[in-house]
Design brief:
Length: 105
Amino acid sequence: MATQKQFNSFEEMLSGSDVPVLVDFYAEWCGPCQMMVPILEQVNAQLNDRLRIVKIDTEKYTELASKYQIYALPTLVLFKKGEPVERIEGVRQAAQLVEHLKTII
């Protein structure tokens, strides 16, 4: 699982991926976001060949949070071929999240 510290082009990173990209929009101060860390590690372990997970700090990348209308944290956005196809807000259990993602990816 990658935490994106910086990148040249978010869109390029998304469209350049040969698998769907699950973007975790989070903030360091967000308690529920911290609860998602081990959950996303479990999701990554189960789906790592079918999905890429990237974490984006909304405090550092406010323009991305605004562009993708991130108003609640944590928010997960699934991108396929560079386009957002699914949005999940709030904390989810790993098993529930894996099953939901399997139906989409």
